[in-house]
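WARN retry 2 of 3 for item q-0093 after timeout on previous attempt; input resubmitted unchanged.
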Amino acid sequence: MGMLIPIGNMLLPVWLCVIALTWLMVWKGMALWASAKGKQMVWFIVLFVVNTLGILEIVYLCFFQPNPWVKGKGKAKKARKK
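OK item q-0093 returned
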């Protein structure tokens, strides 16, 4: 039998914990980066403190991130040719 990790009153396999942790870190990292880049301090704090296994992070990235698909935002303008 594989190694088990005790979580509360349950025993979970190590591989399941690794998958859950990887899932959480990817979504949390993307959401924290987007909220910091968008200067949304309240969202950053909520995303940093609340742990929902990626659910809140996905909701933020899909619905509350300011202008995620605007092209050219933040890029330097090209110099005009004379």
